Protein 1
Amino acid sequence: MTRNDLLWVEKYRPKKIEDIVGNEEAKASFVEWLKSKRRTKKAILLYGPPGVGKTALVNAAAKEFGFTVIEMNASDTRSEKAINEVAKPATAYIALDSFSVGSKGNLLFLDEVDGIAGNEDRGGVGAIVKIVEQSRVPVIMAANDPDLDKLRPLKKVSMLVRFQQVRIPRIIVLLQKICLLERVKAEFEALERIAQNSRGDVRSAINDLQSLSEEDHVLTLQDTVMLSSRNKDVTMDETLRAFFSAKSIEEVSTLLRYSSVDYDDFLLSVSDNLPKRYTDPDELATAYNFVSQADVFRGRIGTENWHLLKYFFNSLAEAAAVAPESYKPFQFISPPIRIITLFWTKGKRTTLNNICAKIGAQCHVSIEIAKHSFIPYVKSILQKQKGGPIASWLKLTPEEVDFLIKMGRF
Amino acid sequence: MAVTEEALMWVEKYRPKTLDEVVDLRDIVDSLKAFLKNPKTMPHLMLAGIPGTGKTTIALCIARELYGQNWRNFTLELNASDERGIDTVRERIKDFSRYSRAGFGNIPFALVILDESDMMTGPAQTALRRIMETSSRTSRFILICNQSSKIIEPIQSRCAIFRFSRLDRQAMKEHLQNIAKKENVKLLPEAAERIVDFSEGDLRHAMNALQTASAYKEGVVDEKTVSMVIGEASPMQVQKMIRKALYGDFMEARKTMYDIMGSFGFSGSEIIRQVQRELFKMSDLTPEQKAELSNIIGEYDYRLTQGANSDIQLSALLAQFAKFGKSIEESYDAQ
Amino acid sequence: MVAVLSKSAFKLPRVEKEKFVLLLRLGLDYNREQGVFSIKSYNNIEKLMDTIGSVLGTEVVFMQNCTRCGRDFPCSECKYNDLCATKNLPFSCVCSQCLRGRKQFEAYLERF
């Protein structure tokens, strides 16, 4: 998988504040707070999705301004006792040599405060609030989800700084830079898709890039098909919504290229929902014609002809753009309609075909004719007279009789 | 050989064993008998017509007329839709003609009955033609098909063609009543009517429906039971699906499609062929409309072989039907 | 209607004193000679944008500044606009020319 031992997320961890991509305003607010001599709030809570640079910012800023970071994160126990043991001494004094170049003293960094658990970290939140009130050094906290009830006391004593997903173009640029430094050749579209798939998470984007890169191989859009989609459950509905409300073919094909949904699931979902989107028969027929074409391309792609993917996207895109003016939001059909046919696994089809072949041998018909001109009747007769003489004349095994009797009931 | 067991599906039990027993197809039987007077000069035969009209029965009768009790030893029954490709067909014919060369009695050839031969592709038919030529000294072919037009010219020209038309209602009703009598079942006239309506000339469906209905109720088959039996059979379901689509209720049509796939285990192409078949039975469409719909079916039948999800292709087909239905409606409104 | 503003200079209609003070307190700077506002602090940026919006009576978005070429451009120019989870903030991004253009990319790389 990787070309050397070092993880790229480690290797390219931001060393300076300006190396952190995106969230410029949040960075500025944080730096302003950290540099200020008289802080209106002694603590700051950085919140936002994972992998956007919160921890990196704290470490880079501390380095730039000469703070020593005392860190406690979710892997440490953060009971009242543990916090008091570590954090209290760290926050009790300002460095005596604060005028020297070396150090401005400590800063306390409590990462992942939303991870403070109820029982294990008993009293943890209360202890932090106390520390903040008494602290003579900056207290920095980071969280993914600031809306948790248990964090309310922390929010009261902190300045809140919101971090957002890093934008797709910014991630692409970063990936391009890493590719250059790692001598990886990559198609623009491949990086684009990794960036989109990451949902603003720079860390996961870099990890994905590293896992997909191979020596002497150009990374292509097709390679990214293997990417496991992140936050799969949310993206299907989101993608469907964006798909059906799109206003142009270009918009849809962009969406599809960067969406992280599974192509096959998406194709089926589009088919499921198409009649809800297009109620006019002419529009529906036109749209279905494109979905049918997309399915044909999907068939031709199979497991290896991924270069045809763009035609698949184009056909789907056309299906979305049949009548942009008639779009009204609607409730999506889920779970997939297809589920009712899932009864027919390959094994069950083989069983049915074997039964049909036996009927065919006795009644001089093909498997297919047996299936539609005999099976429904034989099934009813067997339901009436289980294991009757007909079953033995048709040479059906007890298992086959049982299969027929139960067939089609879900 | 094992002792012949008594057939229990009525279609087999009451299948005529000799040409004389075939009552409804006088013209065909008479011409065939003329051929059989001098079997050595019998040509290849092609039996064409819609399903359930007696083609297989006639072919099996010919085998019996030629070889008597041991007809199975000299007859190779093949079904084009069951065999995997023309090569398998070629191998089986080759093996068979080599194996059975020893003694046909006074008949100098073995018999190959190839059912559903119109299911073969063009190239496969060309190969079949070659096989027919190379084995002509040892084998005679009876090709059975629904539409002779789907068989390539060179094969047609080598065969004597017999066309089987739809059985007429009266003959069918008599048939069903005869069987009911032999089975000690009272078949009520309305019930017989209902079966005949439903089966549209396909005796196989009719007899199976009759047998199934009689399993539901001891001694009597009434209309209610018949309706129940055939309502669950796939032809009615397929027709329901087509009608829903043509009348613009796409959602219901698609639901019916999934029901059909779910309860009968049909593949996409099996459903599409049934759509084709049921469409032609529908009396509320003009021949021109049927032809047009048939073209649409052809397109999606092809896509089905290329695509990844047959239910999507079938849904797309139904959407085309709904659009077509709307255009018919509009043309009526305009008049 | 959406108003697209540049963070370094934009005009607002005359507002009453209290509102003016509020705007400055939320982080705006006012240049009296040119009569234009600019953004000085981002501490209350979301509230600030709401307030500017209420002054203009419309939704407010700011121009994006390209981190490569320095050009200002609106989000509507970006093909990822519909996929973007952060429509307004930050005000820095990469414009489409710099993202795709080979020349810009090479020029950018030289800076490393």
Protein 2
Amino acid sequence: MKPILELEKVLVRFGGLVAVSAVDFHVGEGELVGLIGPNGAGKTTLFNVITGVYTPTEGAIRFDGQAVDGLPASEITSKGIARTFQNIRLFSSLSVLDNVVAAFNLHLKSGFLGALWRGRQFREQEREVRDEALQLLDVFGLKSAAHQPCRSLAYGDQRRLEIVRALATKPRLLLLDEPAAGMNPTEKVELMRLIRFTQERFGPAVLLVEHDMKVVMGICQRIAVLEYGRKIAEGTPSEIQQDRRVIAAYLGEEVVDA
Amino acid sequence: MGSRSSLLICVLVFGVVSALFTGHPESAWPLAQIDDYLLNILIMAGINVILAVSLNIVSGHTGQFSLGHAGFMAVGAYGSAAVTQIGGKAILNALSFLGGAAPTCVFVLSLFVGGSLAAVAGLAVGLPSLRLKGDYLAIVTLGFGEIIRVVIQNTEAVGGARGLTGIPSFTTLGWTWGLAAFCIYCVSALVRSTYGRGFLAVRDDEIAAEAMGVNTTKYKVTAFVVGSFFAGLAGALYAHLIGYITPEGFSFLKSVDVVVMVILGGMGSTLGVTVAACLLTFLNELLRQAEQYRMVAFALLLIVLMILRPQGLLGGIDRWIQARRNRS
């Protein structure tokens, strides 16, 4: 499988603290990869490095063969990486539809002057964007709520809207930051179905950061495990479940009898 | 009916109404004979509308709190006065082939120069300072406004602290409200588009906006430049209304006046801000007898508003209109 995202010896240092240390990692085209690890293992930091919130201190990040480390976040998104947020970050004063419309920003042909002149190209574009956004919402069962303020959505629906919004940027790699956080078991099952569905329908590779073992083990093809900023294991879900170092990282070392 | 056609109709109506009230002494229209005091208030209301609506795109729509609006207004006022008063004779002679239209052309040129200079100033302030957020940005923009004022105060070429006198009074009700309508159109048209959702996205959540591919720096600078351009126009109109400008007229307090209009009308509501700008202009005149209590009255008004209607007088009305339109 051709890798779409490659991380080579990525190191992130905050002053004296090394949050991510010499991590090699890749995601293949159309693959569904999980990234797990105990609290403070550096999962979110790695996420933020990939999406351009931080710049790696050392190492290289390539997307589709091009170096992307150090680019501003919006430019990384324009290359085809979209993300959701651990603590939901919707555009709170906008309607459900406008949240999705705002994410079409990258693909606009008619900008500042178009908005002022409101010519034919502008009107066509407005119609296309609106139709496409409504279609996306429809696919995810949110069309009936399109004109509601996004704050009025239920928690699970807000998470869903975040995924819809990320898809509106037409990504080739979708990063989901703890999508199951705060969900009950039923919602988690629904979420797994949703992630699978997203992949089948839109085909992006997915990198999933998650605490919830059931979700990760249930849907990921491959899993990487971080501990104290280092990658300690990588493999299929069943391999990871048996890995001694992973078990030790999560449950502690076995006490050897004297 | 599209938003474009409805707004163009607004501009036309404004244009016709304003033409009836040109206030020119030679005007043939009977309606032109309204008294000068009322006429001046109406023009001031128009200028304040431009100021408030242009600050609204910066503070209301894009969420960048700016306290330097009077600074951009000053740049526009002095820039345009430089054209008509200082360079007036020379430019008028150069344009003499236009005959009777020459003074109008000079005025249009001066408006353009004033607005453009202010836009350049907006760009110059915007680029370095928009890395800052919230209170920090407010302090930097406040500082910028004061710097402009002090620089003008110490520049003898534009009259220094004495101010600049003898600026021809070109500003009419027609020009003012025509430009106010233009300003309202531009700001609403920009915001009501897929492109314009970017401004609102930046206001709501900068990190998420950036992650969705919105170039936040570009949007913030754009808002700043558009806002300062119109502030510059307002300054130019003001200079050619009063005919006499001093650096003190563009102090920090003037910026605060505009901020009050925006907050009173409702951050992000163009309609609300327009209404509030008119309201406060008239209130200002009503309180002229009690000049020293004016700020007290404004402060009380704001306190009451924050308790009863924190979103501003008409805050949220645009969304309500939008929702109604979607339902039908």
